[in-house]
Amino acid sequence: MSQPVRLMWFRGDLRLADNPALHAACAAGGPVALVYVLDERAGAASRWWLHQSLTALSREIEPLGGHLILRRGEPLAVIPALAAEIGAGAVHVARAFEPAHRALDRALDASLKTHGIALHRHQSLSLFAPERILTKTGTPYGVFTPFAKACQEAGIPDDACPRPARIQGVQAPGDDLASWALLPTRPDWAGGLRAEWQPGEAGAQQRLNAFLAGPMAAYATARDLPGRPGTSKLSPHIHFGEISPRRLWHAATQAEGQGTATFLKELLWREFSLHLLWQHPTLRTRPIRPEFEHFPWQPDPSALQAWQSGRTGVPIVDAGMRELWRTGWMHNRVRMICASYLVKHLLIPWQAGEAWFWDTLVDADEAANGASWQWVAGCGADAAPYFRIFNPVLQGQKFDPEGQYVRRFVPELARLPNACLHAPWLAPPSVLAAAGVRLGTTYPRPQAELAEGRARALAAFAMLKG
Ligand SMILES: Cc1cc2nc3c(=O)[nH]c(=O)nc-3n(C[C@H](O)[C@H](O)[C@H](O)COP(=O)(O)OP(=O)(O)OC[C@H]3O[C@@H](n4cnc5c(N)ncnc54)[C@H](O)[C@@H]3O)c2cc1C
Fold first, then answer.
1. Which of 64, 69, 84, 211 could form a disulfide with 232 if both were Cys (CB 3.0 to 4.6 A apart)?
2. Known catalytic residue: 197?
């Protein structure tokens, strides 16, 4: 008897290796239709990545006999229609954490059932299913340290699914990727992204290998230094599912050196963010701590625009914002500094920063971005207390002491000596002149006086408490 057709719907898992949904669809040995449905919510940088990643995925699939079908539209209509066209008996997809996908899956499950088609959702995007890690009283964790401990105790099984050796592909009409216009045209701002990244499963593996062979050993300390290549830069690959979290976890555990434990902890921060999104579907827009709904923010479009374009007058902040614009990525330490400057010194609502990161990061992720912005703003679960305010000058001096990072992204300050680089407004006029810096002309004066900004932030917080 011939095997029924199965439909494999790629969603957040653009890979062939250790892909439980793909493995299950192929394991039955019958024909498998492979589909990707465009997620219209993606920001501009993510759309660039998506184009490259789908191209790479398609290239991996074709030699195995498969064929990637691209469809656009509401998945609730697209998936049942495609299933009916090809006579599919089952649909396989990765289980999602995003609220929009969860609501969709419920509706899709009901819709497919009426046609006798089963929807199989596979645990694939995280180390654990969302309801697996709970407190002793059966509630989700709201604090990172006990959550991480519970994950470590639960153990992460090392049972990766094999990459399919061949796929009995099913042809069906689909869109041409170019017609989705995911790449920028005029202006083409993606030159820096092309120079930096190789999206796709092979690029992810290369990035991982290079990290394990080099920076991993010193990760525990070097991860905080933005001027050095001290972190993995795997975040966009992880976000698009080009490498599985389980494989990454086990590859890291086998690495030698002191960096391993710290790196695994960061992977658990990702896991924690996903669990927060599961608990708080409005993570991207509403504060977890309800009292912050009434925080006296002071929206300021021109200050926001200066921050977005890396023209705040605070060198480490500007370097970070320009790194983001140029490469689609920003170093974690600098993300914290830039975010803190926006919400504390400028009192601009954290949601405005979240939205800019969403549009410009190649790793823009609903869970990690939402949770991290809330963490910095002090309104999230287990957040940095609001009154702890990063001083961007001291942060720059501590984590970029030689100034390599600032000089790379803010070249107009490159000739300043280290002692003045992070606070050029304090430099003697003769030093500025010798370095070719004219404040207010070649480089902006700071938008906000730092001590004043800090005092304003503390006063705003006091109003919230009172
Ligand atoms: C304001 C702000 C916004 C952020 N937005 C995002 C985002 O949209 N997408 C995103 O993936 N990360 C986000 N992060 C978390 C972190 O900055 C990035 O994951 C990290 O910089 C990615 O670089 P890497 O791959 O070299 O990280 P590594 O240091 O090599 O860490 C390995 C992996 O662990 C995960 N990870 C590390 N730190 C965190 C963290 N604090 N929270 C959650 N996961 C973490 C990432 O998947 C990362 O790739 C944000 C942080 C801040 C402060």
1. 211
2. no
